[in-house]
Design brief:
Layout (H helix, E strand, L loop, with lengths): L2 H20 L6 E10 L5 E11 L2 E5 L18
Antiparallel strand pairs: 1-2, 2-3
């Protein structure tokens, strides 16, 4: 597994866990589900996605990948 892909997977897992821990389970319905992504080497991997709902309000934490068009490539550089 590439280091970049594994780091992305860990960060998404941490974010989903943090959001799950912060919502009031008596008010919000949450559902975690696996999302399959493909890395730049065309290998499949899974990350968690999270659906949240409170009454008519729904939110979706839906990761799309660590390397997307228009996104930063690699660590930020100083100018």
């Amino acid at each position: 597994m590439s280091e970049q892909r594994e780091q992305f997977r860990r960060r998404v897992e941490e974010l989903v866990a943090r959001v799950e821990g912060e919502v009031d389970r008596r008010e919000w319905v949450t559902q975690r589900y696996p999302k399959t992504l493909r890395d730049d080497g065309r290998q499949l991997y899974e990350v968690p996605a999270l659906y949240l709902q409170k009454g008519p309000t729904s939110l979706l934490l839906d990761p799309i990948g660590y390397d997307v068009p228009g996104g930063p490539r690699g660590p930020p550089t100083s100018t």
